Amino acid sequence: MFKLKNQRLLTANSSLEILEAQYFCAVASVLSIPDDDHTTRQFYNQKTPMLGSQIQETSHLDPQFYLSALINCKNLHQIKSIHSQLSVNGLLNDPFLANKLLYVYLRYNALDDAHNLFGKMPERNPVSWSVMIGGFAKAGKYLNCFDTFRDYFRSGQQPDVYTLPSVIRVCRDTQDLKMGRIIHHIVHKFGLHTNTFISAALVDMYAKCGVIDDARKLFDTMKMKDLTTWTVMIGAYAACGNAKESLVLFDQMLEIGIVPDKISMVTVVNACAKLGAMNKAKMIHDLIKKQYHSLDVILGTAMIDMYAKCGSIDTAREIFEKMREKNVISWSTMIAAYGYHGQGQKALDLFPVMSRNRIKPNKVTFVSLLYACSHSGLVQEGLEIFSLMQEKYFIKPDVKHYTCMVDLLGRAGKLDQAFDMIENMKVEKDVGLWSALLGACRIHNHVEMAQKAAESLIEIQPHNPSHYVMLSNIYAKAGKWENMAKIRAQMTNKNLKKTPGFTWVEAQNQVHKFSSGDHSHCESKKIYEKLKSLIQKLEDSGYVPDTEFVLHDVNEELKLGNLYAHSEKLAIAYGLISTPEGTVIRMTKNLRVCGDCHTFMKFVSVVEGREIVVRDAKRFHHVREGVCSCGDYW
DNA sequence: ATAGGGTTAG
Description:
It contains 32 helices and 6 strands. The protein is mainly α. Among the domains are: 326-396, no CATH class; 418-493, Serine Threonine Protein Phosphatase 5, Tetratricopeptide repeat (Alpha Horseshoe); 525-633, no CATH class. Helix 32 (595-608) links the parallel strand 5 and strand 6 (613-614). Helix 3 (63-71) runs parallel beside helix 5 (95-107), helix 9 (164-173) packs antiparallel against helix 10 and helix 27 packs antiparallel against helix 28 (481-493). The longest helix has 17 residues, at 15-31. The protein binds one DNA strand through helix 5, helix 7, helix 9, helix 11 and helix 13. InterPro entries: DYW_dom, E2_motif, E_motif, PPR_At4g14850-like_plant, PPR_rpt, TPR-like_helical_dom_sf.
């Protein structure tokens, strides 16, 4: 029998039970756990078969015992309790124990306690330093991290494979490319470039600092590439808008026999979502099904997003339903999916269900909800959500929430109300916000307000040609030729040229990329012929293209190219895809915004009866600065 | 003992 602190007795019969009880008593006394805490007791008992043999009656002075106690700590209070006992028993001199204590403090985000301990540690070895440096890096305490790294350097130590990844991580998180390159230099100087931890961190750093080519160069020179390295590179391409290359790399990785884990699956699923490539999506899904019985939250959420963006909202919902654990991101993803599929009411319906499941909405959830309202014309509902968010959930609207509201009000024709909202908001106004207003002005032909919006856009981004084109078009429409000339002159003076927008289409398991007036595709001739005949069919049935916002002095061919740029994907689809008659065209983006394109799509779907998946050009990073005329609506 | 990669909006 063993006695606990509060003198209650614990009975044990078999030798194993004696060990269990012994272990539990010892742990409980160190951690100040009451002996009637059954859950905790069960937890420790489970560990007993492995650890029991190490436990002795004199465990209070046994470093090994404290080590396991530290590993099993459940809260900061317990850690502090151990800390003081280690201190009393003079065990802090043991670098193993002290380092573990330091590490555990950091794991519970007790940065100050950790730093304190670090300062008082009688003996600091390289592990202590790397734990502390890593802790600062993870916590986002960049200056502290660099300072400690420097001190470590100065204390006569060399940078090593444990400290450098943390420092490189800081360069990544602060987007400090300059420092990143310096560290890279140091890595070479100390001959550490063969370490995969360091190289993978460097590849990641370059990628997240926006120099993807440097990342790739380093990646290509690496002799030993492990799964993490591949994952970093695959994710990097997806993030910079070249998701196609992500999938190429993923295939290469599989080919050389590297088996993906959940994290790399998430990365490639994300790439598929960005591409909107349904066939690829299904292949990845099969691969995942083979390897895993169930989806974890993150992988499941990524899959919901992927299927929704590839056009299959139903499969997205199925996965959502099947997921055992769902967090706020899973719910927001599903809500957003209904939003851009134009099913605003279904998005709204999910909200109370989410609350019933005790998931607290965050600001992104509300962006998704408001977005859903604006794309389904649910004005009243949107206004209600907007005030609910502030009054019940105490979430302050940021510029994205306001953008949804401006979009919502603007599309509904309540332009003055939208403008008032912009005037009165206390958040910094950005490009997206003014673009939303401008879009609404275009729909409702409000020239004066459009002018204000375009001017604001130019003020924020004086070097973005698309804003000048917009303003010029607005002046042209209003017959303000002098103003228009001025704007055109400004464009010439600043040497601004219009950059094309891109679209992608997936046909027969291949992803094709197009831009306006682009003849680079190998089937280009066929595509343009098909396009021409489609346009002819359209015009025969009374379709009048909207030439209003095309630059006025461009030649006819360019004009046509611009107007129908994004029709190319239809054309290629008709040239290359064969699907059963009567299948409807599935869009990943709600179409109700533009009568022209909608009419066009509907018309084509009736005439041709084929299925394609079209992706929204605006989702791609390198398109963001471009001008998409018709593409805006797709 | 200490180090690198993952999910939602825009």
